[in-house]
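Sample entry was shown:
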Amino acid sequence: MPGEPTVKSAPARPVPDLDVLDGVQRRLLWLATRIVDVANRREGLEIKVGGHQASCASMVSIMTALWFAHIDGDDKVAIKPHASPVYHAIKYLTGELDRSYLTTLRKRGGLQAYPSRTKDPDVADFSTGSVGLGAVAPLFSALVRRYTDAHFEPSPPARFIATVGDAELDEGNVWEAIADPVTHGLGNF
């Protein structure tokens, strides 16, 4: 039908070695848990700074599969806010984050509790946080990509992925974005 987006099928991917992915996810879980643990053991502070270990741990398998078996160089991922330590652990394992940052969660100039494009040393694709921004930013990025591909030189294929949780779906803007007719039929989100 004219004007409808075209969904291109992805090329066949090799089957990932599940034993390797399991080893990676175990390492990520340990690193992410340790990042939060160190943040909560600051000398001279009686109060813990938090870090949402359970919410973070719930994303380890999903993020392992995404980063090490599914996403390509042009794909963009919005990380659910409390999974920031997993994201930083991935960036460390892939050589994109210096080890010295692993002990800086929630410290000034250190790793952010929510992925941030402006404050984190390992720049995220999308800044996320409360109010459901991370859930809808990839949706509208996919929409903009569809527009620019239709009106200008098409860019390399890319997918826009949102990982959600932590009550993000309670935010009204998420459901407004999903229900918006212009977002229907996006094949790359």
